[in-house]
Amino acid sequence: MGSNEVLERLRSVSGAGLLTVGDAGFDDASTMVFAGDDRTPLVVVRPRDEREVAAVVTAAAESGTPLGVRGGGHAYARHALVDGGILLDLRELSRVEIDASRRVGVAGGGVSAGAYTTAAAEHGLATGFGDTPSVGIAGLTLGGGIGFLSRRDGLTIDNLLGATVVIADGRVVEASEAEEPELFWALRGGGGNFGVVTSLRLRLHETPVVTGGILAFEARGATVAALIRAAGEADDTVSTMVNVMKAPPVPFLPADQHGRPIVLAFVCHSGRPEHADAALASFRAAGPMLADLVGERPYPAMFQAGPDVAPNRVAMRTAFADAFDTDRADRAISLVGEAPTQGAVVNLRQMGGAIARVSEDATAFAHRSRALMASVGALSPDPVAAAAGREWADFTSGALGLDGSGYVNFIAASGDAAVRAAYPEATLRRLAEAKAQYDPANVFRSNVNIEPAEVATRR
């Protein structure tokens, strides 16, 4: 089926808004937060409900047209942007409902973490997502969801009660522990491989305030190691993220530190406020401090501003680790100082707590026993500097001894190596079987793609 026929088919089966090259708004609609290769979709479709989503999925499947799905936010890999294909933009599905009495939140497939979190906070409640308001909660949830409440409440997938999903044959199904339980298992960590999630039902937790913010330190390996040790020993009400990075030119940092490596620790204590100082004392004692911006605040205030819609190019390498000692931290500081871009970071997120108390095979996220999630990133708007940043990220990841595992939401590559980094063998086998059941023709393939079991067997 040619492109004109595909467009006519989409117009005939869907009342959703369609944008093609040359239409007002097409460039904005087809621009992702992060830049990269020059991919231009054939059409951007903006459905308003499950029926319209189903019509688009069916048209893509029957015509063989590549399909990408965009939730509410950003992604390093830009999987939603398919060259010459259909970009299914869910941002019109923006409903948020908070049932405070049942502690259940409902969010459409295009809702951002910031919109949902702000609505929940009006009732003193929260569901844990990541660390930026601009991320789309559907995509984040499908990969796992690690953030400032994870050690207390578990990953976002551990708080997913159910989802409405349009699967590859156009059917709209409900997935939960009681309905389509194998699909529900696969959705919780399997990424966008199994359908289009148009609605999520999420558990809410009492979170009237938190005590959190930034602790900035001089760049010392011993400080990083002390922070990681403190994070591992803290109770479950404390979640952390430690960045070794070049100091941005912000007022709370001394001018002589700007552009030089520093250590930024983002800490969040979600227990009783009167216990916060004692819980965070070992973090404050980790080394010579440059700034202490930690204080009591509403939970939405913990979110850092998301990336600008600018042509920034990002290189991201991700892995799980069991330790990060002083020698490795010293190496990270040195490598960040040598990075060819200002936007260079080694990011360390503490696991454990409630994350680790869920069985490895309970969901498709199978890295629960690891102590840390480590990421190496380089960001630049300049293509030449970005290319150098990719080389730096590759080298730094290897120099720090990060293994071949990976967090699917941060994997920017594709292919068999990326899939096997995200999923251990037993998990991958079960995911491939679920893929064969719900998407045997691999309609949903613009992602960290899991091939259906039959296809994988023939290779």
3D structure, described in words:
This protein is of the alpha+beta class. It folds into three domains: 3-89, Uridine Diphospho-n-acetylenolpyruvylglucosamine Reductase, domain 2 (2-Layer Sandwich); 96-206, Uridine Diphospho-n-acetylenolpyruvylglucosamine Reductase, domain 3, CATH 3.30.465.10; 210-410, Vanillyl-alcohol Oxidase, Chain A, domain 3, CATH 3.40.462.20. It has helices at 3-13, 26-29, 50-63, 113-121, 137-143, 150-153, 181-187, 221-233, 276-284, 326-338, 383-399, 416-422, 425-438, 453-458, and strands spanning 17-20, 34-35, 43-46, 67-70, 86-89, 96-99, 104-108, 125-126, 160-166, 172-175, 196-203, 205-206, 210-218, 238-246, 261-269, 289-292, 295-297, 312-321, 343-350, 372-380. Strands 2, 13, 14, 15, 16, 17, 18, 19 and 20 form a nine-stranded mixed β-sheet that branches.
Features:
459 residues, alpha+beta, Uridine Diphospho-n-acetylenolpyruvylglucosamine Reductase, domain 2, Uridine Diphospho-n-acetylenolpyruvylglucosamine Reductase, domain 3, Vanillyl-alcohol Oxidase, Chain A, domain 3, nine-stranded mixed beta sheet, five-stranded antiparallel beta sheet, 14 helices, 24% strand, globular
